[in-house]
Q: What sequence folds into this?
């Protein structure tokens, strides 16, 4: 009997530890949702783009998968090195030419001068502090201005992955098929380019912009006691949501749709509401925010007390790894609390 | 001895699940199916595992009615009737996160699905009794999402 159990353990561990890495299936499971099944891009950048593949080395791809982009959607990976290498090989298989050899040494330029050049030539797309373009990649469910979002250069994941040589080459050649143009063709000299590279590298010593800091909060839910009865509290929540510029959508029992009509628990009610302008902005920032939708506050009678409860967007927002969304979640938490306070006043 | 081995097996399988899941706290998949087919696959996969669809929220319609352009974007709410009743009675703090939901939206000819890993709720609500529930949801949902991803 014991031998059978031991065999089962070995089988369970072998399934995870010894499976030969299959780049195509690993990519399909881990990357395709954002980058597209064939690397056409979406929420993530188009990895199959010829000009992208010609500009980045395998080391850049490997480190990017490992480290992700803190605060910029792409999560870090806990895949093994062999699995990441298999994904990199799969990404390379879309383009028949070998990976480019990118110089790895440091480039010496004048960072102070580079700062001025960056402000004049790069900041419009990459942000004044290199924080990157607004919004999250491109999702074709929504109208977008650009085919690709300018990446955050002041990001620890990018800075650890990109060599100076790669940044330099990108500035010189541009990226065909994206808004990134060749700055040599725009009139900059190679020494200007080196100065910009040195400035970008100096981000490693500069404090990150506030937007790149992930939100930390303590509680997963917001809750308050109501001094009113259940029916009065529900009406108060509807009124308070309207006064906070939300449109009341509907009210329903928590178990509505799960139990036959008429058998719902009358002590658990959800009030749904929405501010469509805010929703549209949130979806443009991160199309994955459906988990928050629609806005809702639940009114519950439990052990003789009436409570109102909601998710805490600040806490839930953290799992999106999107600093821009964090700011919106902070605002949403304030709005929820304002509605809850008004409803229980 | 046998009990200890059983525990070890459970731990090994959970390790395997976590390992396969990756570091991301969201479960996201891209389906090669167009939106209506992917929506149908999702609902069938949930129903096959004993969950009931309680509501489909038409986010796209609300946006369109107020003048914003969007492709298909909906949120599917689902749960198990008795489980929701029991959990909300015993753990009312879970109420804001129930019923569970999956956001589903079109991207050209593909469909994207997103939800939080139920295992994340174990960080939110560190009650040992709830952990088994969250892990079961995570296993079910991982299977559901894989089914939608692989459907053609």
A:
């Amino acid at each position: 009997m014991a031998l059978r159990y031991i065999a089962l353990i070995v089988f369970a561990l072998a399934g995870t530890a010894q499976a030969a890495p299959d780049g195509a299936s690993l990519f399909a499971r881990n990357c395709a949702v954002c980058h597209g099944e064939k690397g056409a891009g979406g929420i993530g950048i188009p990895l199959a783009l010829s000009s992208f593949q010609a500009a980045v080395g395998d080391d850049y791809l490997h480190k990017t998968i490992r480290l992700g982009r803190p605060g910029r959607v792409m999560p870090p990976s806990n895949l093994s090195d062999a699995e990441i290498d298999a994904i990199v090989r799969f990404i390379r298989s879309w383009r028949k030419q070998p990976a480019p050899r990118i110089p790895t040494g440091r480039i010496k330029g004048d960072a102070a001068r580079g700062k001025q050049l960056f402000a004049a030539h790069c900041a419009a797309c990459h942000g004044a502090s290199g924080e990157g373009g607004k919004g999250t990649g491109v999702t074709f469910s929504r109208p977008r201005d650009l085919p690709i979002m300018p990446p955050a250069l002041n990001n620890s994941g990018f800075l650890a992955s990109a060599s100076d040589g790669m940044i330099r080459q990108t500035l010189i050649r541009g990226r065909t098929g994206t808004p990134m143009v060749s700055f040599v063709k725009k009139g900059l000299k190679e020494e200007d380019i080196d100065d910009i590279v040195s400035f970008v590298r100096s981000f490693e010593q500069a404090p990150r912009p506030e937007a790149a800091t992930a939100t930390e909060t303590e509680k997963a839910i917001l809750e308050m006691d109501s001094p009113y009865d259940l029916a009065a509290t529900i009406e108060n929540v509807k009124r308070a949501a309207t006064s906070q510029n939300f449109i009341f959508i509907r009210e329903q029992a928590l178990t509505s749709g799960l139990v036959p009509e008429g058998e719902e628990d009358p002590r658990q009610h959800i009030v749904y509401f929405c501010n469509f302008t805010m929703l549209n902005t949130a979806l443009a920032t991160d199309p994955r925010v459906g988990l928050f939708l629609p806005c809702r506050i639940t009114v519950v009678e439990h052990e003789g007390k009436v409570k109102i409860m909601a998710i805490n967007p600040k806490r839930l927002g953290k799992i999106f790894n999107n600093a821009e969304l964090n700011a919106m979640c902070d605002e949403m938490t304030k709005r929820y609390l304002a509605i809850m306070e008004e409803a229980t006043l | 001895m046998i009990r200890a081995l059983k525990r070890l097996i459970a731990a090994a399988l959970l390790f395997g699940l976590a390992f396969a899941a990756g570091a991301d706290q969201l479960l996201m998949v891209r389906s090669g199916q167009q939106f209506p087919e992917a929506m149908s696959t999702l609902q069938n996969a949930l129903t096959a595992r004993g969950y009931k669809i309680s509501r489909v929220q038409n986010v796209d319609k609300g946006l369109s009615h107020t003048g914003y352009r969007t492709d298909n974007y909906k949120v599917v709410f689902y749960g198990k009737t008795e489980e929701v009743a029991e959990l909300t009675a015993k753990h009312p703090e879970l109420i804001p996160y129930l019923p569970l939901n999956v956001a589903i939206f079109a991207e050209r000819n593909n469909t994207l699905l997103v939800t939080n890993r139920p295992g994340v709720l174990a960080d939110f609500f560190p009650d040992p009794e709830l952990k088994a529930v969250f892990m079961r949801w995570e296993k079910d949902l991982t299977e559901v999402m894989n089914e939608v991803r692989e459907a053609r």
In short: The domain at 19-209 of chain A is CATH 1.10.760.10 (Cytochrome Bc1 Complex; Chain D, domain 2). Chain A has 15 helices and five strands.
